[in-house]
């Protein structure tokens, strides 16, 4: 019953799930909680102040050392066989989190849009047309390919189409038309 419910939910929202999982996952450093289930695990402990390795120890011992020094135990790298854990202050942890978030935003803003679609209708206001053309020019400057699509309603006469083309040609942007 639960499995069928989950699969139907995933089936309905596959578009959103695939968009979420297609992005690169960035490990944001976070506090490491010690529970009875994981306290026996071995970790490599590093000191953030001196940049030294404090050796390999159990997670429980690392937590005791962190409490004694009034620092936070932070998981940094899970890829190594014993995971790498650092002792750091809350201020340093917040600074590193802000840096990783800023880097992620920078990466997402640098991604190119492969195809920029511009939809035009015959009864578009002049300012709206200029705004759309300015956005298209900015996208073209970034290296995107631009696809114009003219949406005509039910039936439109040739005069209105020519009027739209003349409005675009009179604007301050140069556009090559392909028929």
From TrEMBL:
> What is an example of a GO molecular function annotated in this UniProt entry?
ribosome binding
InterPro entries referenced in this protein's UniProt entry, alphabetically? T_IF-3_N_sf, Translation_initiation_fac_3, Translation_initiation_fac_3_N
Translation initiation factor 3 N-terminal domain segment(s): 42-92
Q: Which Gene3D superfamilies match?
A: Translation initiation factor 3 (IF-3), N-terminal domain
Q: Which GO terms describe its biological process?
A: mitochondrial translational initiation; ribosome disassembly
Please give the GO cellular component terms listed in this UniProt entry: mitochondrion
Pfam families tied to this protein: IF3_N (PF05198)
Official protein name in the record: Translation initiation factor 3 N-terminal domain-containing protein
* Organism of origin: Rotaria magnacalcarata
């Amino acid at each position: 019953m639960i499995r069928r419910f989950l699969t139907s939910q995933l089936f309905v929202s596959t578009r959103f799930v695939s968009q979420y999982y297609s992005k690169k996952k960035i490990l944001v450093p976070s506090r490491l909680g010690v529970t009875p289930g994981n306290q026996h695990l071995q970790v490599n402990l590093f000191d953030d102040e001196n940049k030294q390795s404090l050796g390999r120890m159990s997670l429980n011992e690392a937590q005791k050392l962190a409490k004694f020094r009034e620092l936070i135990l932070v998981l940094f790298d899970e890829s190594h066989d014993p995971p790498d854990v650092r002792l750091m202050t809350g201020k340093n942890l917040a600074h590193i989190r802000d840096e990783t978030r800023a880097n992620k935003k920078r990466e997402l803003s640098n991604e190119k849009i492969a195809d920029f679609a511009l939809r035009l209708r015959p009864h578009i206001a002049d300012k709206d047309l200029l705004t759309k053309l300015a956005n298209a020019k900015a996208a073209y400057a970034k290296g995107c390919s631009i696809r114009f699509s003219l949406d005509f309603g039910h039936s439109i006469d040739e005069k209105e189409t020519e009027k739209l083309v003349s409005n675009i040609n009179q604007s301050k942007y140069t556009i090559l038309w392909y028929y």
